[in-house]
Design goal:
Largest sheet: 9 strands, antiparallel
Strand content: 15-25%
Distance between the termini: 90 Å
Number of domains: 2
Structural class: alpha+beta
Strand order of the largest sheet: 1-2-3-4-9-8-5-7-6
Length: 227
């Protein structure tokens, strides 16, 4: 009887603990959602939470861009403990486009030149996210030497980067906190992706939006220079 009583106490305690954990997780989710919703209302953005079979997150929309913060699972269930999960945050805009393709990818600190194999891998990766094959990528020596110590800048010969790396753009890239952005610019627009992270904090969202706004502003200067 004593063993049965102890077992019942353990079962009840475990049930209460699980309930508290679910409550706290749900509370945190609702609090985070409210913070993002309030930020969107303040900025005049459209906020859209979503939950699909194997993915969930939120979207923010402005007249200039769409920001998606997504968690995806690779199995048959949305339960994180049953499947591998991938996270990313991506901002897309059609307001900034160039004739060729330009990639701005983070790398470990230390200036270096890319070899032929690395360029080929970059081309394959870029083609995966594009509607067609991307080739003829070469390392572009635009921006400051400090910028090139932290980012690889690859582009096709017809890319115009003359006014791209403004002080605002460079400061945004160099002062980035956390996982650095991957940027692809082409004829269909621009994508800025934060890999392995579903950003939730207003300051992180603001950092990403400010970088996009700086790049869009630089694109206007490029168009002006062509006139």
């Amino acid at each position: 009887m004593e063993d049965i009583g102890i077992s019942l106490i353990v079962i009840v305690f475990t049930g209460v603990l699980i309930g508290v954990i679910f409550y706290l997780v749900n509370l945190k989710r609702k609090t985070t959602e409210k913070v993002i919703r309030d930020l969107a209302a303040q900025k005049g953005w459209e906020y859209e939470p979503f939950k699909e079979t194997l993915s969930w997150g939120y979207r923010l929309r402005s007249p200039q861009w769409i920001l998606e913060s997504v968690t995806e699972t690779t199995g048959n269930s949305a339960e994180l403990n049953q499947n591998n999960a991938a996270q990313f945050t991506r901002l897309s805009t059609s307001l900034f486009h160039i004739p060729g393709h330009l990639l701005i990818n983070p790398h470990a600190a230390g200036s270096r030149l890319l070899n032929a194999m690395q360029l080929e891998l970059a081309q394959r990766a870029a083609s995966f996210f594009s509607s067609g094959v991307i080739d003829n990528l070469e390392e572009i020596h635009s921006g400051s030497s400090n910028l090139r110590e932290h980012y690889s800048i690859l582009g096709q010969p017809d890319c115009d980067t003359s006014s791209l790396f403004s002080p605002q753009v460079e400061n945004g890239l160099l002062n980035w906190k956390g996982e650095r952005p991957w940027i692809r610019i082409g004829k269909d627009g621009m994508q800025i992706e934060i890999r392995n992270k579903n950003i939730q904090k207003p300051e992180e969202i603001g950092e990403l939006v400010n970088l996009a706004d700086s790049l869009i502003a630089s694109s206007k200067k490029i168009k002006q220079n062509k006139k």
